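Q: A reviewer asked whether we had any structural model of the full assembly, not just the individual parts. We don't, so I'm hoping you can provide one. Inputs are below.
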Amino acid sequence: MTVDMTTTYLGFDLASPVMPSASPLTGTIDHVLALVEAGAPAIVLPSLFEEQIEHDAMAVHFGLELGADGFGEAPSGYLPKLNDYNTGPEDYLDLMRRARAEAGVPVIASLNGVSSGGWTLYARVLEDNGVDALELNIYRIAADVEVSSADVEYSYLHLVETVRAAVGVPLAVKVGPYFTAMASMARRLGDAGADGLVLFNRFYQPDIDLSTLGVTPNLTLSSSDELRLVLRWMAILHGRVAPDLAASTGVHEGDDAAKAILAGATVVMMASGLLRHGPHRLTEVQRGLEAWLEENEYQSVAQARGSLSQLSVSDPSAFERANYMKTLTSYVPTW
Amino acid sequence: MFLSRRAVGHFVGVFGPWLGQNRYHYIDQVRPSEFITVDGNEAAARIAYRLSEVIAIYPITPASPMGELADEWSHGGQPNLWGVVPDVIEMQSEGGAAGALHGSLQAGALTTTFTSSQGLLLMLPNMFKIAGELTPAVIHVAARSIATHALSIFGDHSDVMAARQTGFAMLASSSVQEAHDMALVSHLATLESRVPFLHFFDGFRTSHEVAKIEVIDDDAMRRVVDENLISAHRLRSLNPNRPVLRGTAQNPDVFFQAREAANPYYDLVPRIVASAMERLGAETGRQYGLFDYHGAPDAETVMVIMGSGAGAAIEAVDRLVERGEKVGLVVVRLYRPFDVGAFLVALPVTASRLAVMDRTKEPGAVGDPLYLDVVTALAEGGRAAQVFAGRYGLSSKEFTPAMVAGVFDELARHDTRRHFTVGIFDDVSHRSIEVDRDWWHEPEDVTRAVFYGLGSDGTVGANKNSVKIIGEETSLYAQGYFVYDSKKSGSRTVSHLRVSPREILSTYLIEEADFVAVHQFDFLDGESALEVAGPGARVLINSPYPIDRLWGRIPTRAQAQIIDKKLEVWAIDAQAIARDLGLGGRVNTVLQTCFFHLTDFLDTEQAAAAIKRFIRKSYGKRGEAVVRRNEEAVDRALAGLFRLEVGEPSGPPVDLPVVPDGAPDFVKRITAMMMAGRGDLLPVSALPVDGTFPTGTAKWEKRSIAEEIPIWDPSICIDCARCALACPHAAIRIKAFDPALDTPEEFAWKESATKDLEGWRIVVQVAPDDCTGCGVCVDVCPAKSKEMVKHKAINMLPKLDHLERERRNWNYFLEIPEIDRSELKVASVKGSQFLQPLFEFSGACAGCGETPYLKLLTQMLGDRVVVANATGCSSIYGANLPTTPWTTDASGRGPAWSNSLFEDNAEFGLGMRMALEAQRKDATLLVTALAPELGGLAGEILDVIENLDRSDLDGLVSRQRELVARLKERLATLEGTLPRRLEAVADTLVETSVWIVGGDGWAYDIGFGGLDHVLASGRNVNILVLDTEVYSNTGGQASKATPRSAIAKFASGGKGTGKKDLGQIAMSYGNVYVAQIAMGANQTQTVKAFDEAEAHQGVSLIIAYSPCIAHGIDMTTQMTHQKEAADSGYWPLYRYDPAREVVGDPGLRLDSRTPSIPFSEFAKKEARFAMLARANPERAAELSAAAQQDIDNRWHLYEQMVHIHRTAEYTEEEP
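A: Here is a predicted structure for the entire assembly that you could use as a starting point for your response.
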């Protein structure tokens, strides 16, 4: 029996639900092509960080201005003027254009902005340059003690609405799990114009260096254990919100992909597994998923999708707080 | 000055009656022109570039921008007139550039170069050759003073006058427009005449003046360039298909005749130049003559002048003629060959008294050069006239219309001095004439604006753009001239802008402004920036205070000026807007918008649009973020602009003394005048006759430029002394003192934790008014609070919160006696830092990487050091008046310092050592000869001389000093010649340490030949190379120390070749002590290297890694960043000591570990590498890989070297 592996994400018909997420691995055309060769049905390019673009431009600016016009013998500053500093999104657009031309699969650009102007500006630039779809990678640390959760949620929704109004291409929104009312938030993101929700993003977390007593950014690759948070929200949201659901974080094996699909994912996205093992890992996960579905006599991904979602399971509370209670009380010390 | 079409109306009014017979005549058939707003350097370089195929250059102020522009254009692929991109090459010296120029010409290319001052002097030998071979070429010169009693970067004609004998034709430009026009005339005339041309214009005044000019387009150039002449040049070139021999050696039989054979060519030059000028005139409408006359046709008194002074002179002559005076002016353009006939034609027949103005000085001559030429011309032409010689404007000294009037007044006297000076007060030779400075007021139709800014706030850049905006967006003419102080940190800039409906001739600073902008509030203090404001002037103040509290914050003196002159004051907190937009301290865009709003050159919206266009033009390549933020600054500027309600004076104006009463007399009388910006008023008698100045003056120049200063927390301090060692400005000091000392309560101290200083108390003290706020000390401080890690043993805190207390503490700190060096282990990090630095408070860039080494040197050896300092950053922050950081200890001892040139520093220092040795020999002989009178003392002295135990140099010096003191006491009691002779040389019996100091431009490039010779000399000199890997002082041009893959000027595509391994070259001699050090990477090794270098009886070379703003790094972290330089193997630390080889050990020791981080990791933190990676990733990757390979190869080599023995083992063969 052949399993129908196709799925539809953001309106694109994909040959398989296993695809790479935004990561450094999709940052070069060679890797993009290798991933497609490995079976990637679509590509999410690395995030274009507005903050990085701004920072680079200002760093170039300050570098060129350093010492300029301050000393009679060196009025023009100390660094030579170059023809181009490539501080804008041009490199990214080049990659996107090449990927679209050469990969033969939908190319989704990931965008991370800091200002509402920046989000819409670069969203438009990407659309104008022919991108197939956009993924808004929104990540804010709500560190301001004066900003309430309602304010934070509003800013997310406003952002999605603004970008939605600015561009016509399909729009996915990638967020973190740290909302008080994740389910409501997911619904409202859909209402605001998101065609897909990517759950969840992972970012640098600070670490403390004990030798220097300094704070260092740190990013460790994910493991399958981290899939469970995603599974919970896939399961809860499936069938309850309009956007497609993409499971991101913790997909390393075919079984992980299967779990995500069963919980309700439209697609599963991989980064850590690919970074650790290389593009061929995508093939292995696809095959593993296919094998599991086949072994368990599923005819298609569509048939499996959401079959273990909260709406579909006999004990819906398992995805909610009772689950925690059960785990705690059943815990048996080993010492 | 040419008479532009737009200027005609004005001149017709004044000169209508004789306009027709004047050389200025308007030509109707000129083609439409295009205006550009550029400085003189660019005006000349644009022509030179278009008409050249090969450009060989070497950076020198103020000509460097010409070469840099050519390089930039070449790198950007801009073709010349014939579609070929000129090949621009930076050479190792001007001598090298001239050699390449000569060679390129011989091989048939159209070749040019740009230079100035000493650079031109280094080209002289080649210039004789190029001229002798009748080779068409042009050297464009931004004329600058030649270093004599002092170096000066400013403009006069002493350099070009030194080239008179070379055989080059010499063509002078008086303005930015002329720099453009005469550049073309030079290129045209040289091709036709075959005589090479030196085209020159005044350094800074013209080279750096930004002005609106009419550009000569390519089509016009094509029409006037004769291609046949280029072909003829090619056909004369060396070619094996038609070989010739050129450059023979000739004998007495023919040399003379051959030298005369070229005469006809020179005879034709004036006609050819005149013809080229005519062709230029036909194309542009701008008419020039070899000599242009201006003034009354029946003038009786005529001034003769050359260069930018002509602008001021024309203005004055116009005014005098208006008043009916019979005066005139001859402007000299073609100076060599000097066409007597043309000169006499230009001179009205009525002229009977001439003032010939020279901007140079030829001591001992009958007169300065132009004067002598004019006298000779008159004599040869049979014209009788009284000729007087006036000298003016040396080193860009102001030359104003009032001075011109003063000259005419002088000539009107019955007892006119034959030789006079103008612009100074000479109370020694009494040659200066009197000038009525109130005689001149600028015309009403000229708007004059003066801006006071900081080097770092973008004021000058914005004003350059404002000049361009006015010049290019309106029919108005605009001129900008910019004055910088001599400091590299916290430098002040003053921008002088003129705007006028007609061409601006004024070649002098604005004395009375209609608009004054004070871009830093502090500039209202002291002399006050409002001094220049004319009555009713509009003033813009960048104020950190709200408008309703501003008046009370304005110093009383400035308040009085506002009230007395009825100034209209506007204020804005530009800093807040710039900060909010992430533009740092760059307030330029905000204030530029306010300037246009408060003036009426453009309406506000038009101005805002123009500013935005220029923002995009200037910053567009840097990225949208830069453009957007600056555009927002424009949009937000006017909302924050308020008019100040002038209140009652807060009190009487207070004039604080520039320096405190305790300052030495010289400082109070002379240095303080310079510090206050009134050096122009100093009389001749105030200045030393031979350029000798006292040291120890920087401490009197309290600049107080830091916003934050380091404050010590003794509870955390671990006595490591790293802060003091690393401080580039000697503004963090450490002292140890006796617990018995009764210190003020607010004076912090701690018990010493150092074993050597057990029982002592120590203090770490900031000099609050001398600190630049660079933060290096805090960055290197390793002691962190247990409760809050960001709190260290020293912390940067707002200066104003601590200033008064720290001032008191600093003054008390100075009173604490210095510890005796015998109590310390001097050759250690801690020990060295308890010693007084004799190099303090320099004006180097905040966080400078060079100065900590010099400071350490003075701590270890300063009281017996003689320094030979190459020209460069270290000679500028070390000795640019008004003050010097080199200072003395309590006994009056300290480094004796001198700068000769850029190229000769190694030899200069060697000469010093030889002189000291010669005198020591003399002293030794004299001690021997006087032994009977000196008794046992003679024996003691000779014993110390002959039995030098250098293991304890401090002890030896101490003993020698004691003996010399006793010797001098004894000699004072003796009569006769020999005791007097011995008294004069007795000091040389004490060890004197000679240090030859300079940067990599000197050591690797221009001075390398001499350095190499000194390395080979075996003499006892120490060489300290402050290696910034780039020409720092002149603005970041690549040297042979620039590493592969770094960008620098002349290596904007990333330097493709590796850095010269200077240390290895020195090691190859086998007897040179060599250390490569980086203080921030290994403090102990650094201190040891200085100690060992001094102990080594021979040549020592220390190559010191010196981070520089040209690296594009955060200078606050430059010291800690050095560790990465060493850890990556980019800058391996080592010491090679020949003494080790004597005892059979390998001489080389590596002091850094095997590279542990990749080069790319180190490089990504420096803009000089990172910018290439952004601009051209492929090339950056390629060069980065090659740079890594360089590192690997060098490390591989050094690792082998630490195991090898240089000395071959000999075994005596059995007989």
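A: Points you may want to mention in the reply: Chain B touches chain A through 66 residues (CB under 8 Å). The first helix of chain B runs from residue 8 to 15.
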